[in-house]
Amino acid sequence: MKKLPIVAIIGRPNVGKSTLVNRLTGSRNAIVHDEAGITRDRLYEPSFWRDRDFLVVDTGGIVFDDDSEFLPEIRQQAMLALSEAVAAIFVVDGQTGPTASDEEIAEWLRQQSVPVFLAVNKCESPEQGLIQAAEFWELGLGEPYPVSGIHGSGTGDLLDAVYPCFPPVEELPEADEEQINVTIIGRPNVGKSSLLNALTGVSRSIVSSISGTTRDAIDLEIEHQGQRYRLIDTAGIRKKKNIRYGAEFFSINRAFKAIRRSDVVLLVIDALESITDQDMKLAGRIEDEGKAAIIVVNKWDALEKDSHTIYEYEKMLRDRVYFMHWSPIIFVSALTGKRVKSIFDLIQTVAQEHRRRVSTAVINEVIQEATAWYSPPTTRQGKQGRIYYGTQVSSQPPTIALFVNDPKRFNDPYRRYIDRQFREQLGFQGTPLRLIWRGKRPREVEENSLNRATRV
After folding, report:
1. Residues marked as binding for GTP?
2. Is 70 exceeded by the pLDDT of residue 443?
3. For the chain, what is the mean pLDDT?
4. How many domains does the chain have?
5. How many Cα atoms occupy the beta-carbon half-sphere of 43 within 13 Å?
6. Are residues 166 and 226 in the same domain?
7. What share of the chain is helix, strand, coil (3-state, %, to 5)?
8. Which pTM value belongs to this model?
């Protein structure tokens, strides 16, 4: 794999940058909503044109001479995106025409070393679009390209102009093909973006005490000690009853999709607020999706504590999130960086366990020893449960099929006992373990046994 060149999308608020990004990348990951300031952080999406793969980075709307709310941080994110790009696409609104803000951004872009291409968006009519685009020659950035982010018209001509900026494939640096996808989730204001910045050592996500600062699912590829990671910061997830249709609704959907495409999920909890019902619901979502997970207790530096606090806190967590007893817990401070880098070691461990496969012979040894110590239950009619054999049928998460005479003869306590035996004997730290109890007639078991003996 090669490290792909980056094209930055730049412009003032509400000119349709995210709509154009979705059109260029063929995705719907950038949130599009009729409200200024929806995009705040840098959002990277893969794209393809002719014979070349590249990344498109969406940025927030740039406003100069205004330091209210998140505007200074949005400008910083746009500047960082521009610094790593091979080309920039300056998006303007063809229906509105040139504005003073467009002229300010154009003047700033002329001072940058990166090539700039002018995309006049919202030109839905080909004939009218040429007239609309002609007004933007006055910005002094070369030929304006009329495009429509909604319909896709004109985007081919725009990409043809950008194409020569891509370096030859043979000159692109190599990238490690094996990477671990890590999603950071949690309630609003628990420190997810601060944790992402602490893990990467760069200011990738905007950090603010204002709830709902992060809206998109923010992807960032990094390398740590030879291992590549894709870290995904997500919007804070509130209770469903408090969510209204709009930007927050789309943000939370992006967060849930990020969980599905991850290998490992970091569930961030605020140490000052302990664990809430919403945290437990998020933990249940991770378990249902079958993802490896680490519980990260953030803001540990701000909590008054003694030598017993950490043990009492961990016991409280284990009692509340009992269904994720398999997940490791780490206490960190994203603000000071304490123990943050140790998260990488845990990520590698749980990712390996999530992908691990165990031979059928080893699984059956565990079953034989477990049933010898604790026999399967017997019904009132005197019929005893019997486990014939087991085999791992899949990974991510590890899934073991147990072939038994009758699944109904195995009650919940015995099933939990078998689950515990597998974990004690085989590990599987940090990952859910799925056990499938399948009924099987004795004759089929005998035939399978004979077949296996014949093969041997």
Report:
1. 11-18, 58-62, 121-124, 186-193, 233-237, 298-301
2. no
3. 81
4. 3
5. 28
6. no
7. 40, 20, 40
8. 0.62
